[in-house]
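Exercise 3.2. Students should predict the tertiary structure of the chain below and write it as structure tokens, then compare their answer with the key that follows.

Predict this chain's 3D structure.
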Amino acid sequence: MDCVCCGSAAVAERPERTARGYRRFRCWDCRKQFNERSGGRLNRTQYPSDVVALVVLWRLRYRLTLRDLSEMFLLRGIVFSHEAVRDWEAKLAPVLAGELRRRRRGKGSARGRHWHVDETYLKVRGRWCFLYRAIDRDGDLVDTMLSERRDMAAAQAFFRSAKAATGVTPDRVTTDGHGSYPRAIRTTLGRRVVHRTSAYKNNGLEQDHRGVKGRIRCMRGFKGFASAERFCRGHDELRGFLRPRTRHNQLVSARRRRLLHLRRAADALAILEAA
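Answer key:
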């Protein structure tokens, strides 16, 4: 472990630990002491990293409000307010979304070059905003982007973001009949991309919208655009990461589903704890 102050590798571990049980270190170059959480997003947090990580994971995954989480952990003797949950989510949700987004870059198959793109509506601060979402032929997440407008600039920005997230250019894109999509596809993805406009061929994506729509229903909207954008991206990335199926209508046994969930949830918790 390198020094968080000067970056030196001349670091020695001290025998004592912090009150929370984290290892302590001392740098021989700058003579400063630090622990495992120094320099991270959870530095100076009075709660253990595993508790904070579990709160953020449950917040993004399940239909729980801020106060629901504080009450659930209160029964376990851990006392914090709903504002603490909001603060932890703001700190750790972008870290988790960014790492999961980085892991799936360039790992799509040939079937992943067929994109289905659509937008749904979310209310932010009393106004309707547009959540652009895309999945591939197997139902895996391509990208998510929240926009205040539904126009050419928003469509172009979404396709640039999706291309950067996946690292590939699709062979075929299926959208609805909105007039901004044809030009946006030509300018950002190229003229060789086949563009289909059919509402019926996007039924899979229309059904996939229910995941994020059902998750935010209990929240009764968002109070800020930044928090809405952060939550939607974190939720979709985690939901896609925990998805047990690799294609539509695939039969996954209960034992296999439990094994995959435990393994991937442990990976997500490790990312959050290391933030």
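Discussion points: Residues 1-39 form one domain. Residues 106 and 167 are 5 Å apart (CA to CA).
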